[in-house]
Write a structure and sequence with these properties.
The protein has about 190 residues and is of the alpha/beta class. It has one domain (about 1-185): 3-Layer(aba) Sandwich (Rossmann fold), CATH 3.40.50. About 30% of the residues lie in helices and about 20% in strands. The chain is built from six helices and seven strands. A seven-stranded mixed β-sheet has the order 3-2-1-4-5-7-6, sandwiched between helices. Helix 1 (about 10-20) links the parallel strand 1 and strand 2. About 35% of the residues are buried. The mean pLDDT is about 90.
Length: about 190
Amino acid sequence: MKIILACEFSYRVTDAFRIRGHDARSCDLLPTEGEPQWHIQDDVLKHLEDGWDMMIAFPPCTYLCNSGVRWLHERDGRWADFEKACEFFNALLNAPIPKIAIENPIQHRYARERIRRPDQIIQPYHFGDMESKATCLWLVGLPPLLARFTGGEGIKQSVFRQNPSPQRGQIRSRTFPSVAEAMAEQWG
């Protein structure tokens, strides 16, 4: 299958699909942390009509996520950035690709007015990483991911508790390895 991993610099999901024999390529404005020959460093919107069978997208959540809603009211220019983020998200969701999954955190009410509700909410601990990070999935032509675990003792919230730093956004945006494996195993 020919797969594009939109807005993925970490290479985690790309690698999980490539290991299974798929022609998977990441596409991000940032350079990849993985194999550069399988990375398109560009605006993904320029590549949506390149004949992909599937797209898994990880669009930036800065202006869409519930955890950042207060900044819409406290920082100049945030509403315009929010509108652009909604347009980008919906462009990915409506791409001419038969199978689409878009990942994002729980969105605030203003985003929910412009973007349809997610099809599924997963946690990393559902797949084996003992972490809590509610993650929404919007699905087109793909089934919901089947959880392997329901949780238990020892679940951490290291992503939520990440200290402020210039790399905080990148660290928080990386897909957990067990979730990447579940995507490749169940959707590949």
